[in-house]
UniProtKB/TrEMBL annotation:
Co-factor(s): FAD
InterPro entries given in the database record: FAD/NAD-bd_sf, FAD/NAD-binding_dom, FAD/NAD-linked_Rdtase_dimer_sf, Pyr_nuc-diS_OxRdtase, Pyr_nucl-diS_OxRdtase_dimer
Name of this chain's protein: Putative oxidoreductase
Record-annotated FAD/NAD(P)-binding domain positions: 7-331
Similarity comment text for this entry: Belongs to the class-I pyridine nucleotide-disulfide oxidoreductase family.
Origin: domain of life: Bacteria
Positions contributing to FAD binding: 52, 122, 316
Species of the source: Mobilicoccus pelagius NBRC 104925
Gene3D superfamilies attached to this UniProt entry: 3.30.390.30, FAD/NAD(P)-binding domain
Amino acid sequence: MNERQTSVVVLGGGPGGYEAALVAAAIGGSVIVVDRDGLGGAAVLTDCVPSKALISTAAYVGQVEEASKRGVHLEGGDDVHARLEAELTEVNSRILSLAQAQSRDIRSRLEQVGVTVVEGTGRLVDSSTVEVTPAEGRPTTLHADMVLLATGATPRVLDSMTPDGERILTWKQIWNLTEVPERLIVVGSGVTGAELAQAYLGLGSEVVLVSSRDRVLPGEDADAAALIERVFRSQGMEVLNRSRAASVRRTDDGVVCVLEDGREVTGSHALIAVGSIPQTADLGLEEAGVETSPSGHIVVDRVSRTSARGVYAAGDCTGVLPLASVAAMQGRIAVAHALGDAVAPLQVRGISANIFTEPEIATVGTGLASPAAKEMGSPIEGEEGIRQILMPLATNPRAKMDNLHEGFVKLFARTGTNTLVGGVVVAPRASELIFPIALAVQQRLTVDQVASTITVYPSLSGSIAEAARRLHVTPED
């Protein structure tokens, strides 16, 4: 570490920013976080934490019917019309309170380790100077040995379907709803669209999912996406494949979505989920010599360096992978590298991701990555020399106990070495089940090493070991 104290300025208080600030303070840096939207960023305040809390709440609705399938009935006889009902004002109030509490916890932790938080908007003057404009008052100038850009991303908005915050909404605006939409049109069948479409379906909305591709979740494992689409339809969701939305506009009492083939879909509300764009405009990037991609993302290497000396970047503004966990790791790597601490470059091989549908879809090492991540060495699904096995959960004894009919475990192994290189889990709490697979991929374990690890019986994780056993290669093979 440098003999003198290194000054660090972080622009953005999301996972990439606040995690970096904590590490920088721990290894002796003098740290200032410039934050505009609230500590925790979109991940905590309007995206990951709130949306997953909404999904969790939606899972409770309809459990009266589920209980009856397990032999548990309402006292006095079953009422076939009995169901839980969501009061959306209460639901959203609770969710936003959770988000604010998490944000306060982050601020408290930063202050405990000596990080200074400045509320305002930061902009690079050059590679070592930041101008901060507060909500009120005059701009101030900060000088830094290191600057970390962690400004995140914001919902993509199209001129033909401009959100109004009332009937036409982005994922940032849905928390203002006071009633469950009667009929919700979700434009976009990627991760955000799929998750929120099923959540509102569970809360009681009629849902139409407009997908421009052949299937929902077009960037994900094909088997997993096909299963989720089948679940969506079985739950009553209307899924329109190969149906690109041309426009969405308000009517007197709702919205209408016009498809490119001329069809019209009417609803009470529309959720626009057509991707995100990096928040890199007006950051002074060109003046500071920071290179960006054609999409506006900041170009970084595996230790989060930009093209400008002393300037690093982390999170969704870089376009590596739109995951809070990756943003946090990029931020930690950046400050460790800048302050001279031990550091290992970002490894995308063992990064796991999860889609919080029901059942969840968790993946690791299957090539489900951005072009930037693939340049860093992400495995590409379908490459030669890869064997795979798919184990349906229907035969798992724990799945039978929990009345689970949909789901599977899929493992990928490299021919010759039998090294585990990826996996997909579709199951309740797949986000937890993916960890042993991610650990095996990261540590380059063979399928035999995974198979020889004893699992709890009965457990869903038993299917992971069983899948590994079925990938075993005998000498005769």
